[in-house]
Structures are given as structure tokens and as C-alpha cells.
Write a structure and sequence with these properties.
about 35% helix; 19 helices; 3 domains; Rossmann fold; 7-stranded mixed beta sheet; 5-stranded parallel beta sheet; about 15% strand; alpha/beta
């Protein structure tokens, strides 16, 4: 870790190590080869990229990839006071004093003004010999890369393409966003979510002065169009989930957007996630309790893993308790058409690793409550019982509960502290609680709930509406910070860098994203009800990050 930090620090003082030529018109295969070197640290022949550091540890493969520091956008980054410069072609081959006045070049904080432009020869020398464009010896912590002419040309081709095209959904006066609603989403919640988004955007647009015209900074002659208006496109999906991606492609073609903001899903979000990944469109914090757990994907960010996080919390707690007494079995009960089915599969995978036998009771969507009660009766005194059930099923649980090793109920599915758990179950059942405790989050909810009141927004679903408000606020703050650099990848990179500094985190005690992280809240509690009736709960654990 120390080596990597030193490696990042030295980039404050050196110039990027990639060969770029302004006149190249390479073929797609060459660009693809350059992308693999830049993003993955892999050469076209399948061998890992090698960076050698005099007197220090070498870097190979993904650890040597340019994107680790200069990021996917090529626009560099800030880590505290460490500045990592951009390396796109427009920066490398021009005087940066000229670039800060060029409206066609994104302005980023990592820009270095005092250095000579690179050319093919000086960049090759910097990469292979550690000598920058002004003849200075680069710090020994910056690796020297063994790239032949063909591979240098491939990276050149990729960087010439990077952030070089017009960005869809961005005009001189407007930023276009989409929000996506699946057909199985609750209509009342969808209406409430849209009301939050529409009034947030209305407030934002009314705040703009001068009719959304660019403001000119005379100091550096840069027109910061951070006053651009927002336009929201509501994409309501129809029909079966296997048709959604085509619907989205058609909607994107008709209404190009810069990013997908918030949104509401029901029993699946995977087609939307896959669409955004394929089209390389940021998808910022949709309201879904069943996100795609694939943090190697770049373009979707979520507040929480939802029920998938709950399965991790249950698995962690079972393993802790198994150190004293290992349960005979884990009995899971869920309805097969709901998101509890995916959560049960995730828990099964983890339980099999731990060597605990697991039994799944897959209840049909139209099955009677008696079928659920029969499945529950299968659990013995040394079994763990896990209920992935909605509140209606939870409310109809048997009046009496048998003694079990442990009983868990999903807080996400049952309604958190508003779950209608029968009295007999309350003191012995542990609810998985993937958000902050009510008393602790009350202060953080004061501002969004106050905003709802002032804007005359009825609170229909507090968590969804609060998360939606936060998603809009985060996007607004990041875009203001980005100035005129409307690059999709850069939007996500800046979100990673700034999210942990937010004071208003809503339902979550803390938010934060690092590279290769796409879930901003990473933990939860196990709680139980303290009274036979009502919504008072008590935590049985500290905040656990499984």
C-alpha cells in the first residue's frame, strides 16, 4: 500500500508516460489494444504490462495499468492534496496555458500549466528512460515501461479517442438526464419519487440567473457553463424484463442523455444495469433492493446492496455463533417470484462454503399462508430459520414460535421497524437492518424532510424519497465541482472522490466509494423489537461490515 501511495504521490511532479500523436487515424483493433493496456495492464499478446522502478518494487498487470492513477477518463484525479495530471491527447500535445483557454478541452483541477508540450519522441523517452518533456529526470518511483513501438502506438490511439467526442445529452444550455421506472415498481412510490426529482430540478433551474447563459471568467477566459439547466426524461418500461434493454436502446436513441439519475425498480434491476454498462452511461443511485453485485462494472453506483447485503450480514452472524455451536441446518423460506429468492441463493453460496447444510422452501407466488407456515414448521430446535418475506406474510406468521437456534427476518422486505411481526416472535427474532438506527438517522433526515415539507411533498415512502433527494443533491454537487468537464466517466470518478465528504447521508451512517467500489453503504445491524407492539427496536450488534 505504501509503495502505491508513493507511486501516486510522485505523479504530482511528473508528466504522464504515454505516447500520443495528434495525427493518427488508427483502426478499431489498435484502439482496443491500447484500451486493454491502459485499463487492464495487459499487452495484446496476453502478457502483463511491466513497470520497473529503480530501487523499488515492480508493478505488473493490473497494478501497472494507467487507469489506477490517471483514471478511466484520462483526466487524472485528486487524492487529498495529491494531484494526478490528465493524459488525454489534447493535454499532452498542447501548451497547457493554451488548453485552459480552449473551450473544447475539459477543465480539471489536476491540470499542470507549467510544462512543455509532448511530442512522439519526448513521450517515448519519458516512458522508456524516465526523462520528461523538459529534459528533467523523473522520480525513481515512476516506473519505466517496456513498451515496443506497436504497443506505444496502440495506447496513443486509445488516448486520442479518449474524451475526444461530443458527449450525448449535453447542449450549450442544458444537461439531459433520464430516470428509469420498471413496470413492477409500486405506482404510488414512483409518483412520489418523481415529485421529488421534478421539484428538485425546478428549484435548481429557477436558481439559475441570466437564463442559463454561460458565465465568463475574465481571469482565465474560461466560460464555466455550470449554470446549465437540467432536463429530466422519464423512461417508463413496459412488458417482460427481457425486452427492457431494447426499449432502453430505443429511448436513448430518441432522447440522448448524459446520465441516468435515481430511478425505481421492483423485482429486478439487472437489465438496466447491463444497459448502462454496455452504453457506458452513468447510473447514479437507483432505488432498488436487488442491485447487480458486480463491482468490476464501472457505470452503476448504488447506495446499498439491499437484500444481498442482508444475506452477507446473516452469513457473518451465523459463522460467529457457529464458533460456539454450529447449527444443524439453515432453513430459508421465500416466495419464488420475489427478490428474497436471489437473497436466499446468495446466503446458500456462503453457507455451503462454511459447510452448513441449507434447505430452501421455495413458496409459489399464489401459495396460501398455510404453505409458508408448513415450511416454517420444518425447522428444528438446532436449525437456523431465515425468513425472506414481505410484511403481509410476516404479519400472518403463526401465533406461537418454536424454539430455534436463531431466527432472522429481512428488514428490507418486511418494512424495517414498521414490520408487523407477531408478538411471540419479537423478542427472539433478529431483523437484518441494512440502514442506520432510527434515533441516529433522525438528525440527518431533518434537512430532506424539511425540504419535503416546504415543497408540499407528501412522504409516501420515506427511504425512497430521501434516497432520491440525496441522489439529485450528489449529482448537483459533483457537476458544480466538475465545472465544464462534462465527461461521463469523469462524473463517476469525481463521485468516488467526493462522496465520503457529504454530511447529509440520509438513512446511512456513512457513505464512501473507492476505486472498484460501487456500493456506498457497506454495513448494517442486527436488531430486535423491544416491545410486543410498536416500532421500538434495539441493536444486538454494532455496525457490521461483513
Amino acid at each position: 500500500m505504501l509503495i502505491r501511495c508513493l507511486f501516486v504521490f510522485v505523479l504530482l511532479y511528473i508528466e504522464p508516460q504515454i505516447l500520443v500523436a495528434a495525427d493518427a487515424s488508427p483502426d478499431p483493433a489498435t484502439i482496443a489494444a491500447g484500451a486493454r493496456i491502459y485499463r487492464d495492464g495487459m499487452l495484446p499478446n496476453g502478457e502483463p504490462l511491466l513497470g520497473e522502478r529503480a530501487g523499488g518494487a515492480n508493478l505488473t498487470g493490473s497494478a501497472a495499468a494507467c487507469t489506477n492513477c490517471h483514471r478511466r477518463s484520462g483526466l487524472g484525479s485528486l487524492e487529498g492534496q495529491i494531484v494526478i495530471p490528465p493524459i488525454i491527447g489534447k493535454y499532452l500535445f498542447n501548451s497547457l496555458e493554451k488548453n485552459v483557454k480552449d473551450m473544447n478541452v475539459p477543465h480539471v483541477y489536476a491540470t499542470r500549466v507549467k510544462r512543455s508540450p509532448y511530442n512522439d519522441t519526448t513521450l517515448a523517452r519519458a516512458i522508456r528512460d524516465g526523462i520528461d518533456s523538459d529534459g528533467r529526470t523523473l522520480n525513481y518511483l515512476m516506473p519505466h515501461y517496456h513498451l515496443d513501438d506497436a504497443n506505444l502506438h496502440a495506447v496513443e490511439a486509445y488516448l486520442e479517442k479518449l474524451t475526444n467526442a461530443a458527449v450525448p445529452g449535453v447542449t450549450d444550455e442544458t444537461l439531459h438526464f433520464a430516470t428509469i421506472i420498471t413496470p413492477d415498481a409500486d405506482p404510488a412510490t414512483a409518483k412520489a419519487m418523481l415529485e421529488v426529482m421534478e421539484k428538485f430540478i425546478q428549484d435548481k433551474n429557477e436558481f439559475i440567473r441570466g437564463g442559463g447563459k454561460p458565465m465568463v471568467s475574465t481571469a482565465r477566459a474560461i466560460r464555466y457553463r455550470v449554470t446549465r439547466r437540467w432536463s429530466l426524461h422519464v423512461w417508463n418500461l413496459q412488458g417482460a424484463a427481457d425486452t427492457w434493454q431494447q426499449q432502453l436502446h430505443d429511448k436513448l436513441k430518441a432522447e440522448p442523455v448524459f446520465a441516468v439519475l435515481s430511478g425505481l425498480g421492483g423485482k429486478t434491476w439487472a437489465p438496466i444495469h447491463q444497459f448502462c454498462q454496455a452504453e457506458e452511461i452513468p447510473c447514479l443511485f437507483p432505488n432498488t433492493d436487488i442491485p447487480v453485485d458486480k463491482e468490476t462494472d464501472f457505470y452503476s453506483m448504488y447506495f446499498s446492496k439491499g437484500v444481498l447485503l442482508e444475506s452477507e450480514l446473516i452469513a457473518h452472524d451465523i459463522q460467529v455463533k457457529a464458533a460456539k455451536q454450529k447449527p444443524a441446518r439453515i432453513i430459508q423460506v421465500y416466495r419464488r417470484d420475489d427478490i428474497g429468492a436471489a437473497a436466499s441463493q446468495a446466503l446458500q453460496h456462503r453457507s455451503e462454503i462454511a459447510g452448513i447444510k441449507i434447505v430452501n422452501h421455495d413458496i409459489a407466488a399464489n401459495a396460501k399462508q398455510s404453505d409458508i407456515n408448513k415450511a416454517i414448521a420444518d425447522a428444528g430446535s438446532n436449525d437456523v430459520l431465515v425468513l425472506w418475506l414481505r410484511n403481509a406474510d410476516v404479519a400472518a406468521l403463526p401465533a406461537k414460535i418454536e424454539k430455534h437456534h436463531s431466527v432472522y427476518v429481512s428488514g428490507t422486505l418486511s418494512g424495517l421497524e414498521d414490520a408487523s411481526l407477531p408478538s411471540a416472535w419479537r423478542s427472539t427474532t433478529e431483523m437484518v437492518y441494512p440502514v442506520d438506527l432510527p434515533n441516529q438517522r433522525r438528525v440527518r433526515l431533518y434537512y430532506p424532510l424539511g425540504w419535503f415539507k416546504v415543497r408540499h411533498i407528501a412522504v409516501v415512502n420515506e427511504r425512497v424519497q430521501t434516497d432520491t433527494y440525496m441522489a439529485c443533491g450528489i449529482a448537483s454537487e459533483i457537476l458544480n465541482d466538475m465545472l465544464d468537464s462534462f465527461v461521463r466517466d469523469y462524473l463517476l470518478e469525481r463521485t468516488e472522490g467526493m462522496l465520503s465528504h457529504r454530511l447529509i447521508t440520509g438513512y446511512y451512517p456513512r457513505l464512501g466509494l473507492a476505486q472498484q467500489q460501487r456500493f456506498a453503504s457497506k454495513g448494517g445491524y442486527l436488531v430486535h423489537f423491544t416491545e410486543p407492539q410498536g416500532n421500538k427496536i434495539k441493536a444486538d450488534t454494532d455496525w457490521v461490515i461483513p
